Amino acid sequence: MTIAEQIRACLQDAFHPTTLVVTDDSESHRGHSGFREGEESHFNVTIRAAAFAGQSRIARHRAVHAALGDIVSRIHALALDVDA
User: Which one, out of 29, 51, 61, 74, has a CA that is 20 to 30 A from the CA of 37?
Assistant: First the structure.
């Protein structure tokens, strides 16, 4: 299972989102810090879920990081767009 698939599965299980888009943006970071040839290192995630209603931006981001667990430590960058 790819890291993108793992991210998708964790977030789907944790939040049952109405929208979930996980984009591996690693190749566009070639030559930049954290890029690793042939590996997944940079991701963009857009997620919309009722579970985030009433939470601050920081609380939403913390919830996503908690749901991803150790996956976060295996990647270089994670850009989040999180809302209810």
Answer: 61
